[in-house]
Backbone:
């Protein structure tokens, strides 16, 4: 998606070979027009997949997932990173490890909002090692729902996440694909629209 690629190149901050700071337009300050365009692009890409729900992981995936759900006219579900003490008996749970933070957390999904009849699109801000998406897939499978695909705003194409997900048979669509990161260097994969 050219608009997001342009934002990444113009406003993204390459901290080092693994970290891309996008606080100015995705992770801290959110631009509604950009999120609307992102949602429309995901909706168009996955339009023929029979999606019944859009799922994301709190918190940076919420804005693009909401716009995608709006464009698809389906509900959005937020996977929480900490269990609710009041809802513990009514949750699917799994542990994920954050690549960037190097910490683990428990990812939760309320049984109340998903069923075996759901065909789910997962939306996330970044794809690196694929651990977050894999955790979301585990929760969706626990509910006996199916995964329509995985949409990510920014993929670190030099890391193994896409390969891990595609090996399991999942379609991955990335709106911007990073070929290389280094301090103050961001290089995109050529022709990301075919990804």
Residues:
């Amino acid at each position: 998606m050219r608009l997001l690629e342009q934002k990444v190149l113009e406003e993204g901050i390459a901290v080092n070979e693994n970290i891309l700071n996008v606080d100015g337009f995705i992770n801290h300050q959110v631009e509604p027009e950009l999120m609307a365009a992102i949602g429309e692009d995901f909706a168009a890409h996955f339009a023929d997949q029979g999606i019944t729900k859009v799922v994301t992981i709190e918190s940076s995936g919420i804005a693009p997932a909401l716009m995608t759900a709006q464009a698809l006219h389906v509900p959005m579900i937020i996977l929480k990173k900490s269990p609710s003490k009041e809802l513990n008996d009514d949750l699917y749970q799994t542990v994920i490890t954050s690549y960037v933070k190097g910490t683990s957390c428990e990812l939760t999904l309320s049984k109340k909002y998903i069923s075996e009849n759901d065909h789910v699109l997962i939306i996330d801000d970044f794809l690196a090692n694929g651990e977050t998406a894999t955790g979301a897939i585990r929760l969706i499978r626990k509910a006996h729902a199916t995964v329509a695909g995985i949409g990510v705003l920014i993929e670190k194409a030099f890391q193994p996440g896409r390969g891990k997900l595609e090996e399991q048979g999942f379609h991955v669509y990335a709106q911007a694909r990073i070929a290389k990161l280094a301090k103050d260097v961001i290089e995109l994969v050529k022709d990301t629209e075919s990804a």
User: Anything to note?
Assistant: The chain has a mean pLDDT of 92. The first strand starts at residue 13 and ends at 14. DSSP finds six helices and ten strands in the chain. Strands lie at 13-14, 20-21, 53-57, 76-79, 91-97, 104-110, 119-127, 146-156, 172-182, 185-188.
